[in-house]
Amino acid sequence: MERLLVLARHGQSEWNLKKLFTGWRDPELTDLGVEEARQAGRWLKQQGFAFDVAFTSNLRRAQRTCALMLEEMGQGGIDVLRSEALNERDYGDLSGLNKDDARERWGDEQVRQWRRSYDVPPPGGESLKDTAARVLPYYIQTILPRVMAGERVLVAAHGNSLRALVMVLDGMTTKTIASLEIATGIPLVYHLKADTTVESKSVLERDIDEAS
């Protein structure tokens, strides 16, 4: 039984490019973001991967990334399930602000705490702990049973919703999670053991200019 789980952060969004806190705001992908998503799909196809079901968030950048990946793989017809549980963390009052402007207003250390700490939320928003509180139950109750049944599962979501999940899969602590960065458009490929722990993990290293 394969027990395949692939996680992918959406391709670059318009607000990623502008260095804006995005959260639950809903910008589109940039041209680079579209190519990142397509390249991820091409790479997975070249490596012989295929999926039975996909999960994504309620936000367009993740949904389009998922669709583009599956299109490149010739799998546009599989079931794609959407859930708010997989949304990016809510950045609250920071949403729409430029990150450099936020540092000038509140200072580097305060902004770093809001962005990277496990349990310090930005004003009116969610901490990573809060994000994990909705991501992990959805994973355990809805996604994991499909993986353990032998279905090959793709999850296209966001930097922080995926950080919450990777923290558990990789056995990271509330301190080590602070240094984890998940790049746009690069799939994380997991194979799980029969006890739901990780058997193997690989991270795509790709060249965006690589010919398909």
From TrEMBL:
InterPro entries in the cross-refs: His_Pase_superF_clade-1, His_PPase_superfam, PG/BPGM_mutase_AS, Phosphogly_mut1
Keyword annotations: Gluconeogenesis, Glycolysis, Isomerase
Listed SMART domains: PGAM
Catalysed reactions, semicolon-separated: (2R)-2-phosphoglycerate = (2R)-3-phosphoglycerate
EC class of the enzyme, as a word: isomerase
Pathway info: Carbohydrate degradation; glycolysis; pyruvate from D-glyceraldehyde 3-phosphate: step 3/5
Superkingdom of source: Bacteria
Binding-site positions, substrate: 9-16, 22-23, 61, 88-91, 99, 115-116, 159-160
Site residues (Transition state stabilizer), renumbered to this chain: H158
E.C. code: 5.4.2.11
Catalytic machinery residues: H10, E88
Described purpose of this protein according to its UniProt entry: Catalyzes the interconversion of 2-phosphoglycerate and 3-phosphoglycerate.
Assembly and oligomerization: Homodimer.
Name of the molecule in the record: 2,3-bisphosphoglycerate-dependent phosphoglycerate mutase
Protein source organism: Methylobacterium iners
